[in-house]
C-alpha cells in the first residue's frame, strides 16, 4: 500500500507542488501588501516554470489513486500548453497592471490555483476528479473575471460568468449522476468496460449529452456560448487572454479525455452531438463577428468559431482526430496570446481603447505592431503558409479521413466567411487615415507579441516537426 501511495504521489507531484506553492505565495502577498504585485507576478511565473520542468523531467507516466488520475503523453502535452498559457497571461499582466486598480497581489495566486485545476482536468480519470478540477478552475475564473472591482463591466462579467457557470455545473453533475446510475461506475476505464458489454440505453445517452453540455460551456461553443462576448469584453484584458488560451486548452483536453476514455465504445453516438455543436459554432462564430466594433467581443466570437474547428477533429474519433485537436489547440493558444498582446498595447495616455477603428493607420504610426497583428489576423483566418492554416489542415483532413467530408466543407466555407472581419482589421491598419499613435507598449507585451508572431511564421516551419511528433505521441495514448 505504501508503494502504491508513493507511486501515486510521484505522478501527481507537479500539481501538489503548484498547489502548495500557490498557498505560500498567498501568505507572502498577504504580509507584503499591495505593493508586492509585480514581485508576486514574477514569483508566480517562476513557480509555473518550475512546475513545467518537474512535469517534463520528474513526473513518471502512470495511473494514480486507483485509476482516478492519469498522466500519459496526452495529459503531459496539454498540461505543458496550459502552463505556457498561464505564464504568458501573467507576463501580459505586468504591462497591464500599471493601469489603476488592477495591481493586486491576489491575481497571480488565482491564476496559479486555476492552473492546478486545469492540470487536474486534463489528467482526470474519474467523474469526481473531473468535477473537482473543473470547479477549481471555475471558482478562480469567477473571481478574476470581476477582478477590477471599480469597473461596472468587470463586475457584470464576473456575475454573469458565475450564474451561468453554476447552471453548467448543475447540468454536468446531473449528467454524471445518470452515467453513474446506468453504469455503476465513475472511473473512465470502468465505464468504457461496462459499455462494451451493454446495449445503448436512452438514459445513458441522455446522461452523456448532459455531461457534454456542461463541458461545452467551458469551451463556449454554441448553444452554450451566451456568456462569452460579455465576459470577454467586461473582464480585464489579461484575464480575457487567460480565458482565450489556457482555459480553452484545458476544457478541450478534458472533453477529449472523457469522450475517448469513457465513451469510446459509443463514438457513433457522441459524434452526432459533436458534429452538431461544431457546425453551429463555426457558422455562428463566422457570421456573428461581422458586425462587431469592439475587438474583444470580436475575439469572443472568433473563439467560438475556432472551438468549432477544433471539434471537427474530435468528431473524427480516431488517432488522426485527436492529433489534430492537440495541434489546433497549441497553435490557437499562441495566436490568441499574440492578439491580446496587441489589444493590451492599444493605449492612449492612461486610457485603453478597444474599438477596431482606433487601429486606423497603425501601419504608419507603429508598423511593427501593425505587421504583427496582420500576421495574427491572417493566421486566425487560416491562410497559408501561416500556423493557423496548418492547424485547420490537420483537423479537416482528420474529418475527411473519418468520412465526415461534409463537416470539413462547412469548415472551409465558414473560414472563408470569417476572412471578412479579419481582413477588415488589416484594411483599417494599412489603408485608413492614421489616428493618434498609441503609447509605446511595455517590454513584456512586446516580448509575448514577438514570440507569438515568430511562432506563427516563420519559426513554425522549424518547430513543426517536433510539435507534430509530440502531438502524434499524445494521440496514441487513447489507442
UniProtKB/TrEMBL annotation:
Name the UniProt key words of this record, in alphabetical order: Cell membrane, Membrane, NAD, Oxidoreductase, Quinone, Translocase, Transmembrane, Transmembrane helix, Transport, Ubiquinone
Q: Which cellular compartments is it found in? A: Cell membrane; Endomembrane system; Membrane
Quote the EC number: 7.1.1.-
Q: Keyword Flavoprotein on this protein?
A: no
Tell me how this protein sits in the membrane: Multi-pass membrane protein
List membrane-spanning regions. Answer: 12-32, 39-57, 77-96, 103-122, 159-182, 202-227, 239-260, 272-291, 322-346, 367-387, 393-423, 443-463
- Pfam families attached here? Proton_antipo_M
GO biological process, any: ATP synthesis coupled electron transport
Domain annotation NADH:quinone oxidoreductase/Mrp antiporter transmembrane: ranges: 124-417
Q: How is this protein annotated for GO cellular component?
A: endomembrane system; plasma membrane
The keyword rRNA-binding appears for this protein: no
Enzyme class comes to translocase
The catalytic activity, as recorded, is: a quinone + NADH + 5 H(+)(in) = a quinol + NAD(+) + 4 H(+)(out)
Sample GO molecular function, one term: NADH dehydrogenase (quinone) (non-electrogenic) activity
Subunit details: NDH-1 is composed of 14 different subunits. Subunits NuoA, H, J, K, L, M, N constitute the membrane sector of the complex.
Write out the similarity annotation. Answer: Belongs to the complex I subunit 2 family.
Q: What does this protein do?
A: NDH-1 shuttles electrons from NADH, via FMN and iron-sulfur (Fe-S) centers, to quinones in the respiratory chain. The immediate electron acceptor for the enzyme in this species is believed to be ubiquinone. Couples the redox reaction to proton translocation (for every two electrons transferred, four hydrogen ions are translocated across the cytoplasmic membrane), and thus conserves the redox energy in a proton gradient.
Please state what the protein is called: NADH-quinone oxidoreductase subunit N
Protein's gene: nuoN
Amino acid at each position: 500500500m505504501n508503494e502504491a501511495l508513493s507511486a501515486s504521489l510521484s505522478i501527481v507531484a507537479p500539481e501538489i507542488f503548484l498547489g502548495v506553492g500557490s498557498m505560500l505565495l498567498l501568505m507572502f502577498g498577504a504580509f507584503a501588501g499591495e505593493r508586492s504585485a509585480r514581485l508576486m507576478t514574477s514569483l508566480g511565473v517562476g513557480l509555473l516554470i518550475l512546475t513545467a520542468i518537474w512535469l517534463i523531467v520528474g513526473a513518471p507516466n502512470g495511473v494514480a489513486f486507483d485509476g482516478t488520475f492519469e498522466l500519459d503523453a496526452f495529459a503531459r502535452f496539454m498540461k505543458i500548453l496550459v502552463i505556457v498559457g498561464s505564464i504568458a497571461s501573467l507576463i501580459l499582466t505586468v504591462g497591464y497592471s500599471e493601469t489603476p486598480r488592477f495591481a493586486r497581489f491576489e491575481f497571480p495566486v488565482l491564476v496559479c490555483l486555476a492552473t492546478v485545476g486545469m492540470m487536474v482536468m486534463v489528467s482526470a480519470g474519474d467523474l469526481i476528479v473531473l468535477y473537482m478540477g473543473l470547479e477549481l478552475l471555475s471558482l478562480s475564473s469567477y473571481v478574476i473575471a470581476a477582478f477590477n472591482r471599480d469597473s461596472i463591466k468587470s463586475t457584470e462579467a464576473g456575475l454573469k460568468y458565475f450564474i451561468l457557470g453554476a447552471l453548467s455545473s448543475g447540468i454536468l453533475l446531473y449528467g454524471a449522476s445518470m452515467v453513474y446510475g446506468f453504469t455503476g461506475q465513475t472511473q473512465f476505464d470502468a465505464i468504457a468496460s461496462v459499455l462494451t458489454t451493454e446495449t445503448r440505453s436512452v438514459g445513458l445517452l441522455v446522461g452523456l449529452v448532459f455531461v457534454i453540455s456542461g463541458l461545452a460551456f467551458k469551451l463556449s461553443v454554441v448553444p452554450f456560448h451566451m456568456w462569452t462576448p460579455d465576459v470577454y469584453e467586461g473582464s480585464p484584458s489579461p484575464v480575457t487572454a487567460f480565458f482565450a488560451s489556457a482555459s480553452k486548452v484545458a476544457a478541450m483536453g478534458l472533453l477529449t479525455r472523457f469522450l475517448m476514455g469513457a465513451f469510446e465504445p459509443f463514438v457513433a453516438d457522441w459524434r452526432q452531438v459533436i458534429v452538431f455543436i461544431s457546425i453551429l459554432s463555426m457558422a455562428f462564430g463566422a457570421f456573428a463577428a461581422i458586425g462587431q466594433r469592439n475587438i474583444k467581443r470580436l475575439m469572443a466570437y472568433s473563439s467560438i468559431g475556432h472551438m468549432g474547428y477544433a471539434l471537427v477533429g474530435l468528431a473524427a474519433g480516431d488517432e488522426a482526430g485527436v492529433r489534430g485537436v492537440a495541434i489546433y489547440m497549441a497553435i490557437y493558444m499562441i495566436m490568441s496570446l499574440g492578439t491580446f498582446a496587441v489589444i493590451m498595447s492599444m493605449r492612449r495616455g492612461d486610457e485603453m481603447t478597444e474599438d477596431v477603428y482606433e487601429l486606423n493607420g497603425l501601419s504608419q504610426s507603429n508598423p511593427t505592431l501593425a505587421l504583427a497583428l496582420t500576421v495574427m489576423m491572417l493566421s486566425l483566418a487560416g491562410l497559408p503558409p501561416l500556423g493557423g492554416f496548418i492547424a485547420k489542415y490537420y483537423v479537416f483532413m482528420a474529418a475527411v479521413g473519418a468520412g465526415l467530408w461534409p463537416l470539413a466543407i462547412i469548415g472551409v466555407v465558414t473560414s472563408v466567411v470569417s476572412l471578412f472581419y479579419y481582413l477588415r482589421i488589416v484594411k483599417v491598419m494599412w489603408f485608413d487615415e492614421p489616428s493618434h499613435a498609441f503609447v509605446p507598449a511595455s517590454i513584456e507585451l512586446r516580448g509575448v507579441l514577438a514570440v507569438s508572431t515568430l511562432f506563427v511564421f516563420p519559426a513554425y516551419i522549424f518547430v513543426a516537426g517536433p510539435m507534430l511528433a509530440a502531438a502524434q505521441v499524445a494521440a496514441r495514448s487513447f489507442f
